[in-house]
Predict the 3D structure of the following.
Amino acid sequence: MAVNPSIQLGTSGNWAIKEDNLLAYKQLGNKFFDREFDFSRGTTATFVGRNGLIQESGLTSAELVTNGDFSQEGPELVTNGDFATDSDWSKGANWTISGGTANSDGVNATSNFSQVVTSFSGKTFLVEGSASNVSQGFAYISLGGTDLQIVVNSNGSFKHYVTISSGNSTLFISARNNFIGSIDNVSVKEVGQDWILGSGWSIGNNKAVYDGSSFSSLVQVIPNLIGKTLKLQFDIVDYTSGTIRIFPDTKESGSDIRYSNNGTYVEYYTAAQNQLNFQTQRLNGSITNISVKEVQLDVPRIDFTDDPTGHLLLEPQSTNILAYSQDFSQNYWGKQSATVTTSTITDPTGDQNSFKLVPNSGTGGNRSISNNFVGLSGLHTQSVFAKKGEYNYIALRTRNNPNVSVMFDLENGTFNVNQTSVAFVSAKIEDYGSGWYKCSITVDPSQMSSAGQIFTSFSVGITGNETNSFDGDGTSGVYIFGAQFEQKSYATSYIPTSGSAVTRNQELCNNSGTVNDFNSEEGVLYAEIAALANDGTWRVLGFSDGTTNNRVFIGYSSFNDIACRFEISPSVVYNFNFTADITINSKLALKYKENDFALWVNGVEVNSQSSGNTFPIGTLTQMQFTSATSSSPFYGKTKNLKVFKRALTDAELYLLTVTQYQSYQEMATALNYTL
């Protein structure tokens, strides 16, 4: 096309993004100038990136915690710990070094074998070694005086962690009760670097362990943390009792959050101090895999779900009311004749956080995990990511008469409605690649026998009819990830949870451009868009004078209805509605010029009008993804948006909106070529 747009957003996969704004641009020659949109959401959100994986918006890659898995080990502090030479050790009367081991002959009842190592008060060390040829008595291995007392009275390896409370830096191997035996491969290394361990904390096997004794903190100092919005993630393992909490001063609200079960937990907060502080209340358990990353909340999403060039994704507010969207091992999820086991296959995020849903051995039906909800109002959608394992089917079900059941084929990407009722609204299956499908059903809780109560479940099937009873073997199943239950008529983007419901705020995108970017007398508004759902709501975008008095917009008005309007207060100059599947991407161009209005859709002029005035010079001032005010925000997928400062010709409008040429003749005709 010969004419450049005055404002452009997205085309051919080219998107301009910075930390807090989506950038439209104006092209002059080969140069581009920013035309910023004000973008707001106030929360993180997920989207599908160019790599086909679900990602989190605004999440930085820089890890702010060091040694969060407690695997870091310092340099070796023992010299000649393998006893390759007869040196570096102080030997008591009955100790010798020979054959690559330190040997006690049992002649003396007690005798010491020692080496001075570099150790530090308040730090934690890993002490390891092995024993062989033990036939009598025992050996004490100690570091830091009384801090570590390892009893060795049999053959085999030993491994212990110790936090040094004093400055004693001598490693002792003491023969007791006429010890006869050999010691080898003695090692002392610092562990738990970068962490401050309060009383009762220790390091062991790549985790921080607390002994349940009282109240104590696990702290890491992190510079320049105050004021940043952070994502904290950690695992609690080996839990038996007590509580661990994020220390109150780290929470923006000033209230602590407590954890009292095994699991992976995620919290978002604004830091009030330059440290990460976990405090125990008589916790018997461990913590590991601690991660802290900064997040930018108001970052737009360019989503590539089934879209190689991407689209701007704008969604309404929604809440995943499932407390645990990924950790199906929690007691929160009831199990009926089925178990869940952790999986090592790659999940839709590229990690390994999925679970395998396995029917118990023996004959039975409805092998499921479930949860019950009451007090629901409005349509609700239940969704989950699923992948076939040994079995090919998963059923999404609601129980509270009348029941609803839909069976999803995870091999062919299809579904069957096995049990329907007045409560059933719709079902959908979406291919997310690598064998993963997003399966969803929408139901009306008001139609249940106990209005507002729904018993949701996911169950395994081996045929297209989940009511069939079948023999399970206790190991075969299907894979599941990312469950969601939300008050919506369709499934929105995934909202992860890890202990409580999570809300993703609505997204608003407005106020791009100035009066210089618009021609109020003539022009074209072009949009390549698709609706999120055919839900009968007004969703529009366009440009205006900042009010609803003077505006040009394109959008959706009701079920399967594209709406285009040109308004000069107090009159609607041009108004046309076009029936189409609004969930499918369409190329729309609205031309306006005095006595010359037209709407082009996918290469076809669907309507024209030869009468009507346009705006006075300088009327139009801004571009918005709303109806000029905050009403009817455009929730949908935008692949491309252009504003032209002159009315394009029919040939130009055809080229702008055509999806593809159906023949060589069609292309030649459009371009005015002679064949």
Remarks:
- The two ends are 21 Å apart (CA to CA).
- Residues 248-254 have pLDDT under 50 and may be disordered.
